[in-house]
């Protein structure tokens, strides 16, 4: 797979940087339109404040900067069909839910039976689909702590969140990549915590088990900060483990790109690109940039794969015209991506005899990464951290659990929040690729002047 790859190709994706940049130039206006002009994609519903960090307590990690605060959306600005009063009227999660195990002879549950305003994709968790989720869902129907946020009012940018708290989260995120220490840590004696090193084997998928480890985590919190983050996996690791690492490193790189590109200059009081920030965090780390491009490739592939499924998707936008408008705009984007040769081949993953166990492990580890977002001490960073982990989780669900040609509702159902997260995460990466070229031009200008 992808052997003899020349340097111009993004490893593990078999696509060149130049091709991805060309695609980005072509589709960027459509992504910007969706993420800036279409209500469906500009409001996100999530539990932003209600969930404690399940792994350690970190009251000192709370970010009090103004830039860390999130402005909540006023419920009257939200389309009526999404308001909590309306959502409360809809019956329990089982009501008119399409099963992911629909029998062949049954008509598609999406064709006309759900109605525009009560599609379960709007709010509820399809419980039987849960085992195929790569993220902990955000918008549980009974989540009284859920809030609506306008993503336009809360752009991802520099907040000043840094230090021990931020480092702990990143470190724990990277420790989820320690697939290979599992056998080793199972041999540990029972009076030792069930993870190697600080986070070693990864955090148990079960949140109760995780809560039991909280005290141990608290004790170790300070140790963790002192150590460097774990090294990237060697190239000889299997493709799946490399992909896991690339996804989290690429997400980290994209977040760094945004905070450097939308930096607050305390002298001028203006927001704008900070070249030194870019140099320190990204310019000298081509692997980080490569991983960011890799993520763009997998997001493109996931969105393209949704193409046929969108025909029957209910957008819960409130009225038929808005639903159709949203569908048309999103379909224009998926068509445009699909007009290019595929940029990622997910069929080469999870193929050998250990793949069932490996996939389960991969999924649980990514769910833990999504749980770790509740440990982020800055509200704005937590918001975008949750959106992006959900966006990648959704992309993986589509890549590894979806049949591209299935039109009869047998694929796992995508919740509204998953689709919103997916498209906004694609938007974040599209902006990151753009910012990368802008920073490149600044560096070139500097070189010419010298
Ligand atoms: P960090 O970015 O914290 O990185 C820590 C270490 O990780 C580095 O020293 C390096 O060894 C390694 N590393 C860095 N990048 C990569 C990579 N791409 N791949 C592999 N290893 C890498 N701050 C904001 O201003 N705005 C935000 O929106 C924001 N969102 C955040 C979201 C999350 C989920 C988290 C955990 C933090 C967020 N932060 C945000 C904080 C920001 O990411 C940094 O942690 C902070 O700016 C401190 O940076 P640092 O120089 O210590 O390095």
Automatic annotation (TrEMBL):
Residue ranges of the region described as Disordered: 83-117
Disulfide bonds listed in the record: 63-68, 378-381
Catalytic center residues: 378, 381
Swiss-Prot/TrEMBL keywords: Coiled coil, Disulfide bond, Electron transport, Endoplasmic reticulum, FAD, Flavoprotein, Glycoprotein, Membrane, Oxidoreductase, Redox-active center, Signal, Transport
Residues at which FAD binds: 157, 159, 170, 249, 252, 281
One GO BP: protein folding in endoplasmic reticulum
Gene Ontology MF, one: protein-disulfide reductase activity
Cellular localization per UniProt: Endoplasmic reticulum membrane
One Gene Ontology cellular component annotation held by this UniProt entry: endoplasmic reticulum membrane
Topology versus the membrane: Peripheral membrane protein
Top-level taxon in the UniProt lineage: Eukaryota
Cofactor: FAD
The keyword Endoplasmic reticulum belongs to this UniProt entry's keyword annotation: yes
Main location per the UniProt record: endoplasmic reticulum
Assembly with partners or alone: May function both as a monomer and a homodimer.
Record-stated family: Belongs to the EROs family.
UniProt protein name: Endoplasmic oxidoreductin-1
Source organism of the structure: Arthrobotrys flagrans (Nematode-trapping fungus)
Residues included from the entire protein: 33 to 482 of 591
């Amino acid at each position: 797979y992808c052997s003899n790859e020349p340097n111009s190709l993004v490893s593990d994706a078999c696509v060149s940087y130049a091709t991805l940049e060309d695609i980005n130039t072509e589709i960027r206006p459509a992504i910007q339109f969706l993420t800036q002009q279409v209500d469906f994609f500009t409001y996100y519903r999530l539990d932003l404040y209600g969930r404690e960090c399940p792994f350690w307590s970190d009251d000192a990690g709370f970010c009090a900067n103004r830039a860390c605060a999130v402005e909540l959306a006023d419920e009257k600005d939200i389309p009526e069909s999404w308001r909590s009063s309306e959502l409360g009227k809809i019956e329990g999660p089982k009501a008119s839910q399409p099963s992911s195990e629909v029998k062949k002879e049954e008509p598609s549950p999406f064709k006309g039976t759900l109605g525009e305003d009560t599609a379960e994709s709007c709010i509820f968790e399809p419980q039987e689909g849960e085992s195929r989720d790569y993220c902990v869902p955000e918008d549980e129907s009974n989540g009284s702590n859920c809030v609506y946020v306008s993503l336009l009012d809360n752009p991802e940018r520099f907040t000043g969140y840094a230090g021990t708290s931020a480092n702990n989260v990143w470190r724990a995120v990277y420790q989820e990549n320690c697939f290979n220490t599992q056998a080793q840590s199972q041999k540990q004696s029972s009076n030792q915590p069930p993870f190697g090193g600080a986070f070693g084997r990864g955090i148990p998928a079960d949140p109760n088990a995780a809560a039991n480890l909280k005290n141990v985590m608290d004790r170790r919190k300070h140790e963790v900060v002192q150590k460097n983050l774990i090294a990237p996996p060697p190239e000889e690791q299997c493709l799946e483990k490399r992909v896991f690492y690339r996804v989290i490193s690429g997400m980290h790189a994209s977040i760094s790109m945004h905070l450097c590109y939308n930096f607050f200059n305390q002298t001028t009081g203006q927001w704008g690109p900070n070249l030194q920030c870019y140099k320190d965090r990204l310019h000298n780390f081509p692997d980080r940039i490569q991983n960011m491009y890799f993520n763009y490739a997998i997001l493109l592939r996931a969105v393209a794969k949704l193409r046929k499924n969108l025909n029957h998707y209910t957008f819960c936008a409130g009225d038929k015209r808005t639903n159709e408008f949203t569908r048309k705009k999103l379909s224009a984007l998926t068509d445009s991506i699909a007009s290019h040769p595929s940029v990622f081949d997910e069929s080469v993953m999870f193929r050998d005899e250990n793949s069932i166990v490996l996939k389960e492990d991969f999924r649980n580890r990514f769910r833990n990464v999504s749980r770790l977002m509740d440990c982020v001490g800055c509200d704005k960073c937590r918001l975008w951290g949750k959106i992006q982990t959900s966006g990648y989780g959704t992309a993986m669900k589509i890549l590894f659990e979806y049949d591209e040609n299935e039109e009869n509702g047998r694929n796992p159902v995508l919740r509204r929040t998953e689709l919103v997260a997916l498209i906004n995460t694609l938007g974040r990466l599209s902006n990151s690729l753009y910012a990368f070229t802008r920073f490149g031009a600044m560096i070139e200008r500097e070189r010419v002047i010298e």
